[in-house]
Amino acid sequence: MKKDYALKMDHNDPIGFAKNHFFVPQRKDTKVTYLCGNSLGLQHKDIKVYIEEELKSWKKNAVDGHFIGNRPWIDYQEEVKSMLSKLLGSSQKEIAVMNSLSVNLHLLMISFYRPDKVRFKILMEKNAFSSDRYVVISHLKSRNLSYEDTIIEVSPRDNEDSLRTEDIINTIEKNNDNISLVLLPGIQYYTGQLFDIEKITEECHRNKIIVGFDLAHAIGNVELNLSKWGVDFASWCSYKYLNSGPGGISGIYVNNKFHRDFSFPRYQGWWGNKIETRFQMNKNIDPSISSEAWVMSNPPILMLASHLASLNVFNKIGFPKILEKGKLLTQYLGESLESLSSYGSIFKIITPSNRGSQLSLFFHINGKKIFNKLMDRGFIVDYREPNVVRVTPVPLYNSFMDVYNFVTNLEEII
Ligand SMILES: Cc1ncc(COP(=O)(O)O)c(C=O)c1O
């Protein structure tokens, strides 16, 4: 392993200063190395400042805080959306900040899964994240559809770990008359595979199929161009790579082309009404001509404050610089792991080269034991049955020496 390389890269790291602004978990007698941003991002020191600002406004201004103060609550989300638009590659109008991810997937399914007698099938992954499956199954039940007749599952080929784009495309083509919706992740939570969102979207549209993505593991982790790619809808969470705090607020992206289509079934609330007429409390809703039409309730400002603080870190540093370091960090991790003598016999990387920061290590034996030993030594990673340890160096708060130390400790443990 190249320690010199790690030292040199840290020394010359243009965004290395950023990690000093995050709180790394502390243990009494062990130095902690946090490599688990795929699950929950670390807390930035500005979070407290932003939340305290709104607590002060609430204390001082009470209800007037909606209209006065440094950031009036009535349109607090606009600044958040402006920053999110750079990470999603979309217009501000295509974004709404609301709820949590599973809830948003339900709301998007209500609008975008509109089966008829011929077109009623849903294509998704066999190994989809549990919550996504539960969401989809709920919608099948509410429409009296069976899983077997409705869901088309795609999965990696035998003896392969990730899905081939060509297999997804071929499955769409084979079933093109019957598929109503394709619902896939941007990045697969278990393997870390980045899907070819552009190609899949193009294929869906050629076949008049609606396509949506769960971007939980993609946002803030890889470059996205949702508008350019023409993706129909997406949702994400903000507590992983966006570091907005446990259970942090989620958001939706709905392509512009749907904003003037009022034929959609949509669960509505007063906050989806245009701001100009919202407080007239009319009998019928006058929906926003934007993704805001999907918003139901007034937003939780304290959550937005923490979201804004963490997005501002991306904004100040610039996403391209973060991505550039992220690629080098994960490449260093991958190459260092592959250089170990135990590579191949004891474990292998199942993450393909299309990926974000996460690498998933599959242990042929003793995965859980090795994971526990890593944790004892202060390396916080996570474990997913059966036998996968997910390791994620995050460019905002991890260094090349973090990666070096992780790999040398793993080698010792093995
Ligand atoms: C891929 C994916 N989808 C959905 C969820 C569920 O998110 P939430 O609990 O915010 O609804 C998660 C949570 O980690 C996830 O990783």
UniProtKB/TrEMBL annotation:
The name this protein goes by in its record: Uncharacterized protein
Keyword hit for Hydrolase: yes
UniProt xrefs under InterPro entries: Kynureninase (IPR010111), PyrdxlP-dep_Trfase (IPR015424), PyrdxlP-dep_Trfase_major (IPR015421), PyrdxlP-dep_Trfase_small (IPR015422)
Keywords annotated in UniProt: Hydrolase, Pyridine nucleotide biosynthesis, Pyridoxal phosphate
GO cellular component terms attached to this protein's record: cytoplasm
Native source species: marine metagenome
One Gene Ontology biological process: NAD+ biosynthetic process
Annotated NCBIfam families: kynureninase
One GO MF term: pyridoxal phosphate binding
Gene3D superfamilies reported in the protein's UniProt record: Aspartate Aminotransferase, domain 1 (3.90.1150.10), Type I PLP-dependent aspartate aminotransferase-like (Major domain) (3.40.640.10)
